[in-house]
User: Fold these one by one.
Assistant:
Number 1:
Amino acid sequence: MNSLLLLTGLAVAGALTASAAAPRQPNIVLIFSDDHAYQAISAYGDARRLLETPHLDRLAKSGMRFDRALVPNSICGPSRAVVLTGKYNHLNGFVNNSNSRFDGSQVTFPKLLQKAGYQTAVIGKWHLVSDPTGFDFWQILPGQGIYYNPPMIRMGEQVKMEGYTTDVITDLSIEWLRKRDKSKPFLLLSQHKAPHREWAPALRHLGADGDRVYPEPETLFDDYANRGIAVRDQDMSLEKTFTPRDAKLDPPPNLTPEQRKAWDAYYEPRNAKFRAANLSGRDLVRWRYQRYMHDYTGTVRAVDESVGRVLDYLEKEGLAENTIVVYSSDQGFFLGEHGWFDKRWIFEESLRTPLLVRWPGVTRGGSVSKDLVSTLDFAETFLDAAGVAIPAEMQGHSLRPILAGRRPADWRTSFYYQYFEWPAPHRVRPHYGVVTDRYKLVHFFGTADDYWELYDREKDPHELRNVLGDPAYATTRSELERELARLRRELKVPEQIPPHWLGRQAGDQTKQGGKKKQAKQK
Ligand code: CA
């Protein structure tokens, strides 16, 4: 008899007790980072081999790696709102980072778990403007947070922490685990700022790559041909957008004099060499890419260590066997592909997020899923694991059958994506679309340049060629249009959206529909 089936039954019946003999609801630890590209986890096997992540790989080896975990909206706050509510942003109300505020009175999975007897905590990055609700303990970074000696808010009170933020969040997470009420199952959301911009590594990781020269992505010098204006008109490139602080020509804020000394000892000789070289054009982009990779992978090293420390703690305390451990990020990230950093796009590097799940007794170690899954599914997965009824309004699906190696025959084969924030900060035009295993049909809307594009990832894995007007794709295109319309109905996407969803302050309603005009060619 599967003990988890038994435990689900018990939990539903409300018959669960803390007795040592009875099966217990599983503990849940979600380690959730910010802007972590799957390309920067060695378990994902990226061709560039940007760094080794032994602890994340250890999680992958003892659980399931998801190769197509997609986010409904590739940007920080909205993605977090999706995770908490199991609903798209047009329904949970947090649509962009410019003017949204999370309505903490709505139903979230931590609240439901808390009601079901879980002890709950969120520690680290929150980024939803309003205070957390549904947590017995919370200590969060205000806004985006900073990398060194971070101010934090602990249950409404401002506190000042010392040290490197990833370490601080890990220390607090383990401290909470240590002090928790051991008679209850627990939910811990341990949420890192790293590896978010401006990618400031821990001092111990400066130079950890031994001044390695990183392989460049094939599309570092994308010319943006064969696509509409959106990809050309963005403001997120290494060439145009990368600041002196991004490049560590300026140090990060809030270093102590001692930290600053160690910082300068690494960067100053290298920066002096850079200044003397007086680079321009492609050479400058190449230099920035190398610096970016050193710093980005540097911040990931500390996140990886954090995962190792949490896994070690669970093992040492005998908790590993009854604890689901999930590692994921609020979205993916461009690591030089298309010449970019940042996220926001329906394109693969930002749409896809890393997802590693260890569930002892359910998930076979070292397994891999290529199914279309999403951060939208987290809430229902956790509720399912705890044997808590899933509210009908949630829009994902529990991943439990997939994690158990039994993919349901009717699992989703298409996925709806939407992005609103425009024009600041990165001039990525609002768009929505449908994603399948192979194709993406995208509608750029809400600006004067209203157009559609179609990508075939099988023939064009780097998404460099819009084939919307190609007669060979006429049938595919109409099938995708039908599927997109069906998804929009099913997910209750409004035809008219308020202008403030695009980050605007006033104006007329913005129509999302529109003529299926072919993208303007360069
Ligand atoms: Ca993010």
Number 2:
Amino acid sequence: MLKEKVQKSLNQQMNAEFYSSYLYLAMSAYFESDNFSGIAKWMKIQSQEEYSHAMKFYNYLLQAAGKINLSLIEAPKVGWNSAEEVFQDTVKHEQKITKSIYDLVDLAAEEKDHATNIFLQWFVTEQVEEEATAMKILDRIKLIGENKNGLFYLDHELGKRGASN
Ligand code: FEO
């Protein structure tokens, strides 16, 4: 049986993952409207991946006989000024998510909720990858700078991304 505090935080994290899905979909739309369909595809897949993260929380809550609390999802901002700004926001967002996952792990440990702690370990590992990927793309965009050909090449590269989990 989940403790009240743990259940509340799991629901909050589920909401944060749904927000992540919304955020990356907004970013995908931004790139689509700028005709960078490869980066748009990458972001759309990222959005789907975030939806699957939210559903992991949903399924875990149900399995653990917890209550699902689907609350309002914040609207992401509309429009960015550059690809660099988008990926800066992506890095910042993933760092924020990592922090909230760590806080949840701390809470599970404090509450001696070993099952929730084990469930969260997948997210701890996933966040290392999420931050590293976003950072790598941001670094490449910084290197490309004003070079349009470089950005088109990156668009082509990111467009090769296939759907994952
Ligand atoms: Fe679900 Fe990108 O963290």
